[in-house]
Structure prediction request, 272 residues.
Amino acid sequence: MAFQAQAGDGKGLLETIGRALGNTPRVAAEKARSPYLDPTGTYWDLDQETLEGAQHLRVGQTATGGAGSDMCDMDLLAMAHSNYRQDAQRRQWCLYQWWVADTKINGPNGIEKTQTDAIERRFGPAFDARLEKFKTTRRFAVRPQFVSLGGIEYNAARGVMEVYVPMPQISASGLSVTGKGFVPWHRVTPTGVSSPPHAGRYELLIRMDAAEAANLARQGRDARDDLVVFTVNRVWVENTVPKMDVTVERVRIGYRNETIEVDLTKKQGAGA
Prediction:
């Protein structure tokens, strides 16, 4: 079955939506049990390095659909493509996160959390190697946090599923991702400046009839199959805050028995 969609840039452009049907969502293989007490997969141990051929950023949701531990991948992306640099305190915190993940997954590693020099020696080289890898990478993928940060709702009056995709922020302070098809962070009106609903989210309108929307609602969502693939066009630093401009290539929304997938490159064309 096929759907039509409009990219949320207000221009009413139509997309072809491919629907991947199946009894089992495409998710990473799960282990029989977790090696730690936290929710399964929290430390990205069930995730792969690539998703749909793009570099997986360890931010957002893990392969199990739960929230993943912050491994500072967005810091690495910012440093890889701009003159942004971590200070010593931030680097120490990030390497501590790597130490935590290692101890949670593999058990005690002979280093105490207070031994910052030893943590640097153990995890610093791998952290730097990941930075070098990101310097030659522009295409990334994440499982977005739709529940807490985005939105998926059927608008019966318009006959569309309104999808607002939350992107990973490259700055801890937020308001740091822009691009074509995004709801602006701020809107200037005659009465002042305001933040519109779903500010900073990528907007996608999927044409759908009420029966199909009801069927999806009955199924319920499966966040394990959610995905957004994007290309980083530019990263810059504004008043010490890193920001980035991206092009969204693909959005996938998981349900219990099927997925909805939108290939936005068909609209953008080879020259976009």
